[in-house]
Amino acid sequence: MNDTAQENTGEPKTVSIEPVATPEAAAGTGHLLGAADIRRIAADAGVSPTKKFGQNFVIDPGTVRRIVREAHVDADTHVLEVGPGLGSLTLAILETGATMTAVEIDPPLAERLPDTIAEFMPEASGRLTVVNRDALTVGPGVLPQFADTSKPFTLVANLPYNVATPIILTLLERFDNLDSFLVMVQKEVADRLSAEPGNKIYGTPSVKLAWYGEAGRAGVIGRNVFWPAPNVDSALVSFHRGPERGSEQLREATFRLIDAAFGQRRKTLHAALKKTVPAGAFEAAGIDPTRRGETLTIDEFVALASAVIALESSADAGTQTETEAQA
């Protein structure tokens, strides 16, 4: 879904986000989109929400303003939005004075968005760049405005629910300066992204996201703020990037172990990783091979990957020495 868009007793507390009548909305000074605006713009543009792109449009100004406040966006923030759709969240971001880029996969919506901003918030038009592209294909070359790694930016988006996790992980991998995000996703996805070890929904997305930083639930959102109303619950996930963990080689090795461990999550690490982890790696990393992958923290996966790299490097060096000696 986008604006074009389990069992754990320690589950984080969430706050329900429902439509509210804000002073700005009541005064009509915010120029944000309500239900009638959304339907009119969609009709004018010949747009109907499609399941292909996971489109459910936010129709409540109070909700998008709360999302922007939770993301701590202000006039100094550089924002990336994925899946802006008809512009509900886009207008709320621009209302803060922020400069932003919106990446939209659907050509009619990408073409319409600047017109919507010009109609409802013309003074903000110069602070918006629209890119008609699949978010999974963008990088610093496509979005040069985010290429300077010394200048952090944030992702604020109502993500397409069917590809939310790949979008998040892809952007974090390609943009070292993606410093934080606040995204709306399906509630089950939010639970997985923020899950802790030992939770039955803790899995590949949870651990891979933890490589980059710390995620947490930031609230739940009612179905009645969307048009059309979705058949699933929605939730917000917040994220802040942590210190650099290591090289690209280490990240790739860690992610391979994560994929293998959770590919057979009911098996012990020894059984699930027997084709991946050489003898001695578990001992070197201080990890009991009879544990299951679902009990390991990201730090333990990194330690195991480091041990694997070290042992493989040692073995390669030994082979090279032997070859040279024979020569």
TrEMBL record:
Pfam families, alphabetized: RrnaAD
Binding site for S-adenosyl-L-methionine: 56, 58, 83, 104, 134, 158
Record-linked PROSITE patterns: RRNA_A_DIMETH (PS01131), SAM_RNA_A_N6_MT (PS51689)
This protein's record includes keyword Metal-binding: no
Record localization: Cytoplasm
Enzyme class: transferase
EC number from the UniProt entry: 2.1.1.182
UniProt entry tagged with the keyword S-adenosyl-L-methionine: yes
Name the UniProt record assigns to this protein: Ribosomal RNA small subunit methyltransferase A
